[in-house]
Design goal:
alpha/beta; five-stranded parallel sheet; 13 strands; about 45% helix
């Protein structure tokens, strides 16, 4: 794999070619979920964790596994269950009788890409084990602090909250996810393609169809390029104004934090680079805003009783603001 990713061509041209190869690999299996794939890649480039929500059977877990296959880094999977303990996630100290001391045995969270399957099936005590590592990329156990290797990314899946046997994720934890991506059923035409591919590849593991196109060094180079994307001050003010509006809206009980403003900025820069530009335009901001805000807003009881959704309120806020040009 070429370590000198941007040696010969313009950075954005090489950037776009690399991401096209990434999309092409995932597209060998996943059909008709272009926005989900684009936001997943933007999340990696913006160094943010991602929450995938959808009913069972819409390829949430498969997509996360395929994404990990396209990047040549460490991968682990944790199945969250009601009886899972914090030590099962971060690890625990085990007594070694031969050495007469306790030795820390790392848990599955010590990897680069960590898939947490059905994250809303574990209680708050286990969820709290993720707070430090998701925000600070480190784990503190028995007074010792261990830093995670880069890149470090949590991709979590969950079924809709109203289904049986699930827990509501704490707001502080939801705020640590850059995106909440909602996955709907595929169209009938896309589903025909999915079933046909399955029929033609019976006996072949889906993961074996995807090859790695990046490594840790490549991801670091891409992130460095994204961080240098230009953003005009008026667009930064627009982002802050939009997020601040969520704290004053009559339909919102709890608005978004400054972390949401930073998330919109970083992910808009990633989208701009993915579309071949070295500067952000308002369309980039509007594209990522629902995914950044929808899990950070708590609607008022009245709005919930009316059947309103965070996406409805986000759309109202966007329409009420003047978009800078």
């Amino acid at each position: 794999m070429d370590e000198n990713l941007f040696g010969e061509r313009t950075p954005l041209q090489e950037f776009k070619e690399t991401l096209n190869r990434l999309k092409s690999e995932i597209g060998k299996v996943i059909v008709g979920q272009d926005q989900m794939i684009e936001l997943l890649i933007a999340g990696i480039l913006a160094d943010g964790h991602i929450l995938l929500e959808g009913v069972p059977g819409v390829a949430k877990t498969l997509t996360a596994k395929l994404l990990s296959r396209t990047i040549d880094v460490g991968f682990s999977r944790i199945q969250f269950t009601p009886d899972l303990m914090p030590g099962d996630v971060i690890g625990s100290s085990i007594f070694n009788p031969r050495e007469m001391l306790f030795q820390f045995r790392p848990g599955p969270i010590f990897s680069n890409i960590v898939l947490i399957d059905e994250i809303n099936r574990a209680p708050a005590k286990t969820q709290a084990a993720l707070f430090e590592v998701m925000e600070e990329r480190q784990i503190t156990v028995d007074g010792q602090t261990m830093t995670m290797n880069q890149p470090f990314l949590v991709i979590a899946t969950q079924n809709p909250i109203e289904q049986e046997g699930t827990y509501h994720l704490p707001e502080a934890q939801l705020d640590r996810f850059l995106f909440k991506i909602k996955i709907d059923y595929p169209s009938e035409a896309d589903e025909v393609t999915v079933v046909t591919r399955h029929h033609n590849h019976v006996g072949t593991a889906m993961g074996d169809m995807v090859q790695a196109v990046m490594n840790a060094s490549t991801v670091e180079n891409l992130r460095r390029l994204v961080s240098g994307i230009h953003v005009e001050e008026k667009l930064i003010r627009f982002i802050v104004s939009m997020v601040a509006s969520t704290r004053q809206h009559k339909s919102i009980y709890l608005g978004a934090s400054p972390r949401a403003s930073i998330g919109i900025l970083q992910s808009a820069k990633a989208i701009a680079a993915m579309r071949g530009r070295d500067f952000v335009v308002p369309e980039d901001i509007l594209y990522v805003t629902p995914a950044v805000l929808r899990h950070r807003l708590v609607l008022s009881p009245e709005k919930e009783m009316e059947g309103g959704t965070p996406d409805d309120v986000i759309n109202q806020i966007v329409q009420s603001l003047e978009i800078p040009r």
